Amino acid sequence: MLVLLVLGFSGGVPNVLVTTVAQAWTSSVGWSVTAIGALAFCTLPYALKFLWAPIVDGVSLPLFGRLGRRRGWLLVSQLLALFALVALSIWGPVPTDPAPGVDWTLGEFAAAALHNRIFFALLCAAAFFSATQDIVADAFRAESLGSAELGAGASTFVSGYRIAFVVLGAGVLLVAEAITWRFATLGAALAMAFGVVATLSAREPDIVGGVRPTLRESLLQPIARFYSSWGGRVLFLAAFVLLFKLPDQLATNITTPLLMKGLAYSAESIGWVRQAFGFVMTIIGAAAGGWMVARLGVIRCLWLFGVAHSVSIAGFLVLALAYGATVHATPVAPPPIWALMPAIALENIVIGMVTSGFVAFLMSICDRRYTATQYALLTALMAAGNAFAGGMGGKIADELDYPGFLIVAMLAGIPGLLLIPFVRPPTSAL
Fold first, then answer.
1. Distance CA 328, CA 234 (A)
2. Which stretch of DSSP H or E encloses residue 6?
3. Is 413:310 a contact under the CB 8 Å cutoff?
4. pLDDT band for position 428 (cuts 50, 70, 90)
5. DSSP string, 282-296
6. Contact between 384 and 47 (Cβ < 8 Å)
7. How many other C-beta atoms are found inside a 10 Å radius of the C-beta of residue 52?
8. Which domains does the chain have, with CATH numbers?
9. How far is Cα 51 from Cα 49, in angstroms, rounded to an integer?
10. pLDDT recorded at residue 94
11. Which residues on adjacent β-strands are paired with residue 326?
12. Would you tell me which of 68, 105, 205, 303 could form a disulfide with 143, CB atoms 3.0–4.6 Å apart?
C-alpha cells in the first residue's frame, strides 16, 4: 500500500502540471478562457494510450530485465516524464497579446505564437510519458492486489494522486509570484524522483500462469476477451466509461478560470483553499469511498457516487450566481474566502469518493493476464471524454457564461447514471 501511495503521487505529478498548473500559469499571463480550455487537448495521450499499451503488456525492456517488465517500464516512463517536465518548467508560456498601450510588430506576434506552440508541444510530450507511466502503474496495481483489496488499493492510489495535486498544485500557486512560475514548476517537476525510488523499492507482481503474454497476444486477446465476456453489452460498457465522469470533466477545466478571472481570487488564495483545504476533503472522500465499496459493493456505490458527482457542481453554481461571475469581465475585488470553502469541500469529497469507486470498478473487470492493455482501453475512453469535454468547455462557457455552463455540466451526469444497469460484470457479484 505504501508503494501504491507513492506511485499514485508519481502519477499525479505530471498530471497536475499539465492540467491545473498549466491553466493557472496561462491565466496569469493573460491567455483567453477559450485558449485555456484548449489546453485540455494536450491530455489526448491519456485518451490514446491504448494504442501503445499492448507494447507495455507484451514487450520487456532488455536493459531493465532485472527489474521485471512492470518495473522496467515504470522506471523508463518516470525518467522521461521528469525530463519533459523540467523542459516545460524552463520554457513556460508568454502573453498572446501585447500589454495595453503597447503595439507589437508582426515579428513579435510570430515569436509569441511560436513560443506558445513549443510550450503546447512540451505539454503534450509530458502528457505522453505520463500516460505511459499510468499504463504500467495501473497494471502493477491491479496485478498486485487481491479482490478483497481493490477498494483499499484504489483509495490508497487515489490518495497519492490527490496528494500530488494538493502539495504541488497548492505549492506552485502559493510560491509562483514570489519565486517566479519557472522555479516553482521546476521544483514540482523534480518531485518525480519519489516515483523512481518507489519503483526501485517495489516487488514485481506475480505473473498469472507464470508467463507474460507475447506482443501478438497483447494486441489481439484483450479486446477479444472483453467481447467474449460482455457480448453486445460491451458497447454499453464503453459508453458508460466515456460518460460517467463527464460532469467533473466538463467543470474541472473551467473552474480555475472561473475562480481567477470570473471571481478575481488570487492564485495564492486558490492554492490555500482549493489545493490545501481541498486535499483534506479529498482524502476524506477517498477513504469514505473505499469503505463504502467494501461494504456496499461497487455497483451500488456507482449509483450513489454518480448522483453526488452532478450535485457537487452546485457549489460553484451558487458561487457564480451569488457574485455575478462572468467570462466578459473580472470584478475589482474577490468574494470572501469563506464563501469559496463550501464549494471546494463538496467538490473534493465527492471527487475522492467517485474516483475510488470508479477505479475499483475498472480494476474488477480486467483480465489479470492483459491488465495493462484492458485498463488502458478503459481509462483511454475516460480520458477521451476529458480531453474533448475540456476542450469544448471553454467554448461552451463563452457562449453560455459561467452559470449556464455549470448547469450543463450538472445535467451531463444523467447519461452515465442511465447506463449503470447495463454494466454489471457478467461473472461478478459486484
1. 44
2. helix 2-16
3. yes
4. very low
5. HHHHHHHHHHHHHHH
6. yes
7. 18
8. 2-422 (1.20.1250.20)
9. 5
10. 84
11. 329
12. 205
Of 170, 89, 166, nearest to 125 by C-alpha is 89
Residues 126-142 as b/e (b if ≥16 CB within 10 A, e otherwise) read bbbbbbbbbbbbbbbbb
Helix/strand/coil (H/E/C) assignment for every residue in 354-380: HHHHHHHHHHHCCCHHHHHHHHHHHHH
Q: Which residue has the cell 509530458?
A: 126
Helix (H, G, I), strand (E, B) or coil at 266: coil
Question: Does pLDDT of 160 surpass 80?
Answer: yes
Distance from C-alpha of 258 to C-alpha of 265, rounded to nearest angstrom: 9
pLDDT digits (tens, 9 = 90+) for 106-126: 787 888 888 888 999 999 999
Q: Where do we find the cell 492486489?
A: 145
What would the grid cell of residue 256 be? 480555475
Nearest to 59 by CA among 200, 219, 210: 219
**pLDDT tens digits along 190-236:** 999 999 999 999 888 876 655 666 667 777 777 777 777 777 788 88
Mean pLDDT of the chain: 83
